Each structure stands twice: as structure tokens, then as C-alpha cells.
Amino acid sequence: MPILEGSIGVEDLVLLEPLEEESLLKNLQLRYENKEIYTYIGNVVISVNPYQQLPIYGPEFIAKYQDYTFYELKPHIYALANVAYQSLRDRDRDQCILITGESGAGKTEASKLVMSYVAAVCGKGEQVNSVKEQLLQSNPVLEAFGNAKTIRNNNSSRFGKYMDIEFDFKGSPLGGVITNYLLEKSRVVKQLKGERNFHIFYQLLAGADEQLLKALKLKRDTSAYTYLNQEVSRVGGMNDASNFQDVQRAMIVIGFSEEEIRQVLEVTALVLKLGNVELTDEFQANGIPASGIRDGKGVQEIGEMVGLNSEEVERALCSRTMETGKEKVVTVLNVIQAQYARDALAKNIYSRLFNWIVNRINESIKVGTGEKKKVMGVLDIYGFEILEDNSFEQFVINYCNEKLQQVFIELTLKEEQEEYKREGIPWTKVDYFDNGIICNLIEHNQRGILAMLDEECLRPGVVSDSTFLAKLNQLFSNHSHYESKVTQNAQRLYDHSMGLSCFRICHYAGKVMYNVTSFIDKNNDLLFRDLSQAMWKAQHPLLRSLFPEGNPKQVSLKRPPTAGSQFKNSVAILMKNLYSKNPNYIRCIKPNEHQQQGRFSPELVAVQARYLGLLENVRVRRAGYAHRQGYKSFLERYRLLSRSTWPHWNGGDREGVEKLLGELSISSEELAFGKTKIFIRSPKTLFYLEEQRRLRIQQLATLIQKIYRGWRCRTHYQLMRKSQILISAWFRGNKQKKYYGRMKASALLIQAFVRGWKARKNYRKYFRSGAALTLANFIYKSIAQKFLLGLKNNLPSTDVLDNTWPAAPYKCFNSANQELHQLFHQWKCKKFRDQLSPKQVQVLREKLCASELFKGKKASYPQSVPIPFRGDYIGLQSNPKLQKLKGRQEEPILVAEMVKKVNRGNGKTSARILLLTKGHVILTDTKKTQAKTIIGLDNVSGVSVTSLQDGLFGLHLNEMSPVGSKGDFLLVSDHVVELLTKMYQAVLDATQRQLSVTVTEGFSVRFKESSVAIKVIQGPGHGEKSKLICKKKGSNCLEVTVQ
What we know:
By secondary structure, this protein is an alpha+beta fold. It is built from 32 helices and 31 strands. Helix content is 46%, strand content 16%.
């Protein structure tokens, strides 16, 4: 049951009933599906990764959580950050925020949110803003060099990080210190399927410009490098090129110089190039296997980049110098050993480079030793891990989580005990699982697993992983939290899942089986001295500083500390640091394996809940009293449950709470009254109070509604009564006003009639009754006469084209003026037509017909308008030879001109004489005097002509006519507008039908039994004289170009 109205599920798992794993998971799933990703366990925040951006962050929410206490608003990471910051600023208590969870659970994002909240709420100022910017910009740099894509997470942190942010007495940040733990340097040389190397390698190759790549002797293609997984080079939603620019800007903000940035990128490129050094088998003269470099180009480039002799690099990779107190022995390495040495060098270079970057950031953000400061630590470290194959890395990670669980239990119980003591409530011992026995099993100085591992690494003689496992089996054969194949056989237990090279530890979060293979090598983490000395001899300042042990003057035969002992010491320092601060916890959970939003896998979350010990956390919090609250806020919330405290209580807060709970008859065993708080033992009691409060609120709401409805009805009735009285008064007054108005109007009307009658009577005595009408008619006629006489004297010219006309002097003459204008124009036109001769009339009719046929359609039409139609263009009347062409046709010749006939078969043209009479079209050869083709106008079905400035037209004939059976004619005329206009009129006169004249750029003409498509296009020329070029396109197409 939720405590806050409108909340989804139980916001604080301390109040969960029943307290079981199933109910816990259902509550988390219910809240997650409603996009409530945060849940409390007391002051612990559980964060379920939503895999999407939710609208619950930003300045608005930061301001909201800054103004409220922890439980007043919905669970949020801002609430925890606010409590930690205010406790540090106001109570002078150092804080630490522990963020745990497995890869992909959102630990890195949670740490960013905490830092962004603290940066937003702390002080302002130029220096403060500079410090905040440096602290925030450390994230992209560490993510680039320490994060990578894994199967579970696209941006997985492959190192543990603890950052101490230091503040002054006002709560403004001064700087900080970053500590890193256990970088996964094995990823440099090998990645699992579907995973990538560290981000910086891909960012460098994608984001560096060509000049930088050339200086680093790199290629942009990731497939050119052995250390980069060829299957996965890009990550969805991640822009490597853009991120590289962000990393460079962040390094500048932090304080890296351009020279330092260049050296860091050179060392990064060196690691890539080391992976491309290919080793090959060789044999010495005595037959001992050795190794060598297959292609010396890569080693030479490495030597040139870091200022080192390539022969010295090859010697360091392929041989090893063993030193004792008095002598040196040089041994050659076979291919496998040389490859191990190469990979070990690459891992050490990258690991030391990462440590150098962390130290360099610390130099920029460190605080002076003389300043008094407060500290807030943020721990972002790997969560508990159980993989299919668990090795040395999982062993030390789970050891670290055991220690963090120990800190949580001890500090939580300590905080509970201190609160009980402050409030004067007796403390009862709490039964809980103490994982100290597991921590002791791992870290005991003489008999712990890490101590046995170090002892086995230092022991002379044959050392292997199997001898290490045998020593563990002998030492922990009776330990309740240790199992192996040997111990199970001794107890006559059979477990087929247990391997011969494995052992199992019963952690607080469950049993984990570890494979001891490579435990010895990973713990030794050896780098041959020859390689350290070779790197120290390099002329590269940064690379040289990473290998101080390579200095011959500082050669030490003392064995370096093992990886396990180093990590154990780091964890011990971390635990000491955490014990000195007030802890705050963020438990991150991954809802599914596929990074899909809205998907919740109960099985996966159940495993993580056990890893994180959530149920154990709840049980510890509920060991004494599940809920506690200040008297004032408790009384404010529940005082409505008692008649004594509701609606007013004038006594003290504690007395009011005692009076309230006494009237509710709650068992005294369920309650404890502290100095400032009321303590409630079980959640059921709190739920009972909430249920009673809900019912009481319903009763009060009903009472309020009843009183409000009564008041509203009374108010409405009184308002209606007042309105009715007011309306009645206004109605009666208005009625009387209207009656008075009618009486007054009637009196005035009678008076007006009487006065008018008297005036008319007196008028008739002195004046004629029709004088006014006579005067008006006379004046109107005088004005009209003056208008018409003025119009007569000012008539415009009789030119037909002159359309001017004087305006009317008065508006009353406008319509008459327009009619006169129209009559005058019609008279001028008739007079003009009467003056024309019949020949001129015929010419104008032909021009009118040409306008109707070609105006706006044919480009050559405007040129033909001013030119009169001649008809005879070949001198027919004066040439008797040409008159013979008429033959027996006695009709007058309408048009006689020279045309060109286009051959429909090949596009060639030939000259012809065309005669148009009133009944025929005659075509003949220019060299002959007899007609070649005579076409009756009744056989002409239509004409097709183009819209361009040419004379091409197609003469379409009826198929049934003797001439038309051969096909249509395609002709070119220089006077096509005149010819087709007269042909149109001749056909109309002869057959009483209109000739079809089609203007188009594409038409077809019949040719024997088939048809030829004519396509006319405009060429580049635009002169007045158009030239036609005919080309045959295929068998049935003729293209005509007009130039």
C-alpha cells in the first residue's frame, strides 16, 4: 500500500507487506512499468535502468528537490544527493555515496546525476564555476580511456572509480581527488565476441584529422589493427568522431597542455601498433626454438615514434635477461613467450597511461593542503558478478562487494543504534547474517585465499594453478563457505557442475564457482625487466615517465607486489575512507539483458536483488521500528483521526500524538515515544493509520460537500429572489415608459397634421397648386437641352478607331450618355463599311477568317496581318504557259504559288506548283505544263499545321477518294496562313462544311497502307525565314527541325 496519495506501489520497501522476494519484485515491476524507476529502502535508493530519457531531470526538478525533505516527494536520486549535500554543508559531516550494480545497470549515469545536482545547488562565482566545470569534464576523459562496449552495455565502465569532491565551509567546491581501481587491462589485447576495445582507440581513428593520423602513423580503417575487434567497430547511438572532439575539449578544460594531449595520443597509437607486431618461429644454431619479427616495418615505426632503436625493441620482445646477485643470463623466447611479452607490454603501457591520466586530472583539481575542507565521496564500482566462467577478476570484484556489504550492515546498524540512543529508546540486539567470515576467508593475512595465492606465486619450485587449488583444498577442507571437487568427494557429495580446476565460495549474494586457470599469471602480472628498461630508454617524455623501474640506477631485484595484494590494500584504504564518512547508497538494477525500454525480466532482477542484498537491507532496517517520524509532521498528518486534536490542538506536539494514538487504541508494544520522534514497529500499524486517515478524509470530504451544496443552494435562491424583484421593477417601469412614449408620439402626430392642414390652407390662398411641378419640368428640360446641344458641338472625330466621348455633366444623364456613345460608334462603323468596295470587304473577311483560325496559335500569324493576300505568287495571269495548268477547270484561281512537297518515305523535298480554285486543289511539277494531281475540295478531310514559324502543313484526304487512296500530302508553303485561310473558305462555300484545321507539333499522314508520324521540333535558329530539315527516324517516323 502506498503512503503518499497517487503513488504507484510501495515507495519505501521498509513498509512492504509481506516481506518476500516475490512481493519485492512485483513492486519493482509495477513501478518500473509506470516509469517510476526509483524506490527507497529507508535512505537507500534503488534505481532501475529505464534505457530511455525520462522527463524527471533538469533545473526544474533540481529546484523542487532542493526545497523539500527526503520523504516529501517521490523517490529520486536528487533527494539522496540533496540530503548528502545538506548534511555536509549544514552539519559538517563528510559524506560518501556508494553506487553499485552490475554492468549496464546505470551506475555511470547515476554518478553523473549526483555530480550535476551538487554542481547545480552549490555556490556560484568564476572560480567556483571553473572548479565545477573541471570536475564535470573529468567524466568524458575517463569514459573514453576507461569505458568500452560489452555484451551487456554499450558504455560499460571497465574500472572502479572513487571521487572525493572537496568543499569549503560555505559548501562551494574547491576541487577533488579521483582514485581508480582494477582497470580491465586484458581488454587491450583481447575482447569477447560482440565487444569492443576501449572507446579511445575508435574515437582516435574516427575523429582525428588526416594530419594527426599521418603524424601518429595510423590508418583510419579499424580493420588494420589486430587489437581491435573486427566484428564490432561501431556502436549504435554513439558518434566516435564527435566524442573524440569532446574528449579533446574536456582535456583542455581540465588543464592538459597541447603537448600533453599530443603525447597521450602518441602512447595510445603505440599500443595499437604493438598489436600489429607479428612474431615468427626461429631456431638457434643449437636447435633451441627462438622467435623473431616477421616484418620490421612496424617495429621501425614504433621506434621512430618514441625515439627508440628498432633493434633494441626487437631484442626486448624476443629475449629475456635473468639477473641474480652476481651474474646475468640472457635467454631467448619462443613465439608463445614473445607474444605474451608483447601483450604484457601493451597492457602495462595502457594501464600506466590510464593511471597517469587520473593523476594528471588530480593535479588540476587538487586542493591546497592548508585549506580546511569538507568531503563528499562518490563510489562508482563494479557490482557482484556471477558469470559462466568466473576468473581472478570476478574473484577480486566479489571480494570488494563483500567488503561493501559489510560496511553497509555495520554502518546501517550503527546509524539505527545512534538514533535510538538520541531518542532515548532501548536498543535490542538485531540478528542478521554477518559476512565477516567470508571476508576473513578471502583476506586473512596468513590463512586467507589471497595470502595463499601470494605465497604460491613467491614459492620456489614448480608453481601452477593446480598446486594453488590443492593448497586451498587442504587449508579450507572444513570451511562452511568453501567447496571444491576434493572437499565434496571427502563429504561423499556428488556435484556434476563442479570442475576439477574450480572452487566455490558461498558469498552473501549466492554461491559463485571460480576457475583457478590463470590465477597465478594474473596475480603475478609480470612485465620482463628488458621491456621496462627499453621503454625507459625511449626519448618520449611521457612513455619514459611510465616506466621508472627501467632506470638502471634504480634497478631492484625485489619482486614487485602482486595484483591481489595491491587490490587488497586499495580496498582496505577505501573501507577506512568509507568508515570515516556518512554513507548514502544507490543500488542500480538492470531490468533486462537486451537494453530494451519498458521490458522487465523478473528472473534477471531477482538475481541482482540477491547480489545487492536488498531483502537483507530491508530486514536490517526493520529490525527495530519500521517507521519513525517527527511529532509535528505526524500530528499534522493524522490529527484529523481524533476529536481531541481536530480541528484545533493547542497543546504540545508530543502530547497531541499521545492523545491521538491513545484514542485509536493501538497496542503500546507497537509504539515508542522518543524525544523528538514517534516510532512505529510494524508496517501494518502504519497502514492501519493510513486507512483510517483515508476513511476520515472521505467523511470530511462528504461533510464539506454537504455544507458547500447547502450554502450554494441558499446563495442561489437569494440571488434568484433579488433578481426576480429587480426584473419585475424594471419591467413595470419600462412598460409605463413605453405607454407614455406612445401617448406622446400620438399627440405630436395629431399636432403635425393640424399644423400641416393649416399651412396648406394658407398656401392655397396665395399660390397656384401646380406651380412647383411645372417649374421642375421646365428646369429639367432646360438642362437636357443644354446637355444635347453641348454634345452636338463637341462630337469626336468620325475615325472608327477613335473611341473618345465627352462625359455627362450630371449623374442623371449617365445612362443616356452611354446609349448615345454606342449609337454614335455604330453609325461611324456603318459609314466606314458603306465606303468600302466589294474587293476590300472580301479582303477584310479573309483577314477575319485567318484571325479566327491562327491568332494565338501560329507563330507566323502576326507577320501575315499587315501583308495583303495576293493570291497569285507565280505570275499566272501574265504567263500563258502557266495558264495551261488549269486544264479544263474554268473556275477562278484563288491561290497560285510555288510549294515544296515532302517525300514521306525519305524526307526529301521537291518543288511543286499549287493552284487553289473554288472546287479543286491542283498540284503539278514545275517542269511540266499539265496537272499532275487534281484533288476535289469535297475529298479534303482536314489540314494539320504546326504552331512554329514554318510553312509545313499536312493535307489529309478521304481514304475512299481515288486520290486519297495513295495517302495524304505533306507540303511546305511560304504563304501557309493565306493558303489555308482561302482553302477553309473555299471548302465552306463548296461543301457547306467547315474544314478541320489542327495546330499541333505532332501529327500523322497516311502513306500507302501505313501511316507516318510527323514530329516537329524547334531548332537553335530563330530567324524570320525558317528552314526545315527533315530526317527519317525509323520506318514510321519523320522528324522535322525548324531553324
